């Protein structure tokens, strides 16, 4: 480093640091200062990667798996996942529910918070107990991916290559944590998948088996969506809210159903938008590309845009 660079830093960085620290007294919603630590994004991603190894054994970093060694392989990973997940859930519970000064003594030592630590451990173990059922439904999603796209040549190709299946896998994990009442972490997981795939699935959505998202970029599935079996979505589909009602104080009303219900065997093509908590797309229906649907559609219905007039100059 040159002498000029050192002098430049010494002349400017202390003042910049002072001004930045001063903002901490004003912009408190975008900082977390205090003894109670937050969940760690990188550890949550590590948990997802470990879970992928046991949900799709042989498709990850470990090869040469067979019935003779898979028990040790899975047991080792589950032991590691439990330890990490229990801590992350505990931290999320502490942050969301608030810690007393006594609980946060000694730098928020987890050993000082026996009740919340036990709650975190119980929720982590309850989640791990759901992994066999998650594998069961993921097999139907893999089958739907292979059955729904003639370009897919094998189940292995679906697992390795399809971003829709990756996003669905993370959703299935996050949804179970959401059902267990775990705060923060389910959203951290699905938003990580969103950043990787371009597919935004809220962990609160309810999605049946044999779910397939083809291509996927730009798909949005809202928190209170209910999706049945054998539903197929294409890229750019939005299953969103029609409006956001407010209470007497002007705050958004939370917890009500805002997003549509999609019944069994529905296909929704690219860039279609379906809005509203009272909107139901009946079973065996097809929603065409680029349409806006804001009211219910009867079963066995096709919804299409009027064919546009092509002008060539």
Low-confidence stretches: none
Strand order of the largest sheet: 1-4-7-10-13
The topology string of helices and strands comes to HHHHHHHHHEEEEEEEEEEEEEE
Tally of contiguous helical segments: 9
Q: Strand pairing plus helix content: what structural class?
A: alpha/beta
The end-to-end span amounts to: 61 Å
Q: What spatial form do the alpha-carbon principal axes imply?
A: globular
Descriptive overview:
- The chain is built from nine helices and 14 strands.
- It has helices at 3-22, 41-55, 70-97, 105-108, 114-129, 131-148, 155-161, 163-179, 185-197, and strands at 200-201, 206-207, 212-213, 220-221, 226-227, 232-233, 238-240, 261-262, 267-268, 273-275, 280-281, 286-287, 292-293, 302-303.
- With 313 residues, the protein is an alpha/beta fold.
- Helix 2 packs antiparallel against helix 3, helix 2 (41-55) packs across helix 9 and helix 8 (163-179) packs antiparallel against helix 9.
Topology of helices and strands:
Elements: H1 3-22, H2 41-55, H3 70-97, H4 105-108, H5 114-129, H6 131-148, H7 155-161, H8 163-179, H9 185-197, E1 200-201, E2 206-207, E3 212-213, E4 220-221, E5 226-227, E6 232-233, E7 238-240, E8 261-262, E9 267-268, E10 273-275, E11 280-281, E12 286-287, E13 292-293, E14 302-303
Parallel strand pairs: 1-4, 2-5, 3-6, 4-7, 5-8, 6-9, 7-10, 8-11, 9-12, 10-13, 12-14
Helix pairs in contact: 2-3, 2-9, 3-5, 6-7, 6-8, 8-9
List keywords for this structure.
313 residues, alpha/beta, five-stranded parallel β-sheet, 14 strands, globular
In short:
It contains nine helices and 14 strands. The chain has 313 residues and is α/β, with parallel strands linked by helices.
